[in-house]
């Protein structure tokens, strides 16, 4: 890939955030990136079904982006949700305030794990795969619904215990791989690069709109320390936006394997020196984030990278998978959430302006006055 990629970055606050998302969309050239006359998929990011700040797509990110799309003529919008062995999509879209936004703006929602809504079909990529063809020797399968549609990813700025950071590239992990995508974790960096190559083949337009109003530091992607950073980003280059987010967090983007591999494969720009930044000045930003560790990250290391990885096929590709799945669910949903992270989320909600805005979404559903998403009404409602 030659030439500079553009990443739009803005600092924002709760009062003008919906209008700022439209401005961000314009700065990133969103209308030029996406193909007109075809459906556009909104792919939100439900990392944890509980409303953990910094972990999941924010309601203002979702509403601001769909309003920006509608204002520029992209009216055929649909959200697609996915499921994991430890995350409940129905619970997540409810607890994080998405359902009222979908209803208020008449956005249909589909689920890639419902057979009546989409079919997983064999797909033979034109690009050379780094890992997926070895992980799935019986063939790579993707949802037929994704082919031929634009996609807009809605990740957040946060750390990740497997990949150091997570963002736009990893958001495809949910949509294009099935519920049992944990098979790929040992080769996660190569998998993300393969998925981006596939996306470029099947989507006429790809855009990422990333929320860092509250960012996640520590043992992400779920059990993070929420830090207010008041930043939002957008780009048509999934590698570049992940590189900029990584640099903001204090990491060297090219030292992160998935970013470096994608850069070397020509799938995007991972070198910050080759990225054009538009919007606000972030040259002095270095948040000093670190990838933390806990019992979950230790168990994950044992399963995917440690000496017990030799048992992966026996445990993870047989009915025995219910055992680590149950352990993960108990640990995250019945220990970590009620004993620690629920209180952290509550403190954020009660004592930060973004938490207050989240509460308003929980109570009011939408903060835009009209269903067609006019930005003027949206700003007056947020005031």
For the residues shown, what is the average pLDDT? 91
CATH topology: Rossmann fold
Residue share in helix: 40-55%
User: Termini distance?
Assistant: 43 Å
Uncertain runs are: 370-383
Question: Helical segment tally?
Answer: 15
Give the tally of structural domains: 1
Profile the largest sheet.
10 strands, mixed
Q: Could you describe the 3D structure shown?
A:
The strands form two sheets. Strands 1, 2, 3, 4, 7, 8, 9, 10, 11 and 12 form a ten-stranded mixed sheet that branches. The longest helix has 30 residues, at 322-351. A hairpin with a 3-residue loop joins strand 10 and strand 11. The chain is α/β, with parallel strands linked by helices and 383 residues long. It has helices at 17-27, 30-33, 59-71, 89-95, 98-104, 132-135, 168-176, 188-202, 238-249, 257-264, 295-304, 312-316, 322-351, 353-364, 375-382, and strands at residues 5-11, 40-44, 77-81, 109-111, 120-122, 141-143, 150-154, 156-160, 164-166, 206-219, 223-235, 275-279. It has one domain (5-378): 3-Layer(aba) Sandwich (Rossmann fold). It is globular, with a radius of gyration of 19 Å. Helix 1 (17-27) packs across helix 3 (59-71) and helix 1 (17-27) runs antiparallel to helix 15. Residues 370-383 have low confidence and may be disordered.
Features:
globular; 10-stranded mixed beta sheet; 15 helices; Rossmann fold; 383 residues; disordered C terminus
Concise structural overview:
The protein is of the alpha/beta class and 383 residues long. Helices cover 40% and strands 19% of the residues. The chain has one domain: Rossmann fold (3-Layer(aba) Sandwich).
């Amino acid at each position: 890939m030659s030439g500079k990629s553009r990443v739009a970055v803005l600092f924002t606050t709760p009062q003008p955030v919906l209008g700022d998302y439209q401005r961000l969309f314009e700065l990133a050239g969103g209308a030029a990136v996406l193909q007109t006359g075809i459906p556009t998929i909104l792919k939100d990011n439900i990392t944890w079904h509980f409303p953990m700040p910094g972990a999941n797509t924010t309601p203002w990110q979702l509403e601001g982006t769909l309003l920006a799309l509608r204002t520029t003529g992209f009216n055929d919008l649909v959200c697609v949700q996915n499921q994991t062995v430890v995350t409940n999509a129905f619970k997540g879209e409810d607890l994080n305030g998405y359902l009222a936004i979908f209803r208020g703006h008449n956005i249909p929602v589909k689920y890639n794990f419902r057979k009546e809504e989409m079919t997983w079909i064999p797909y033979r990529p034109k690009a050379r795969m780094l890992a997926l063809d070895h992980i799935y020797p019986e063939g790579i399968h993707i949802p037929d619904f994704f082919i031929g549609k634009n996609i807009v990813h809605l990740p957040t700025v946060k750390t990740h215990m497997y990949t150091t950071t997570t963002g736009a590239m990893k958001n495809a992990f949910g949509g294009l791989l099935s519920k049992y995508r944990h098979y790929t974790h040992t080769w996660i960096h190569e998998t993300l690069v393969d998925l981006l190559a596939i996306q470029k083949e099947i989507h006429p337009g790809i855009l990422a709109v990333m929320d860092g109003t509250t960012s996640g530091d520590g043992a992400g992607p779920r059990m993070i320390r929420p830090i207010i950073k008041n930043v939002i980003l957008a780009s048509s280059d999934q590698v570049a936006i992940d590189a900029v987010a990584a640099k903001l967090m204090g990491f060297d983007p090219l030292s992160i394997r998935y970013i470096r591999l994608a850069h070397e494969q020509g799938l995007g720009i991972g070198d910050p020196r080759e990225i054009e930044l538009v919007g606000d000045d972030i040259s002095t930003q270095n948040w000093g984030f670190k990838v933390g560790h806990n019992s979950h990250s230790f168990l994950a290391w044992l399963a995917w990278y440690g000496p017990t990885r030799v048992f992966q096929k026996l445990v993870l590709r047989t009915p025995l998978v219910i055992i680590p799945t149950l352990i993960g669910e108990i640990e995250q949903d019945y220990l970590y959430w009620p004993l620690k992270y629920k209180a952290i989320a509550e403190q954020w909600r009660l004592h930060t302006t973004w938490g207050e805005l989240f509460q308003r979404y929980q109570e009011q559903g939408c903060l835009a006055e009209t269903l067609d998403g006019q930005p003027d009404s949206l700003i007056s409602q947020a005031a």
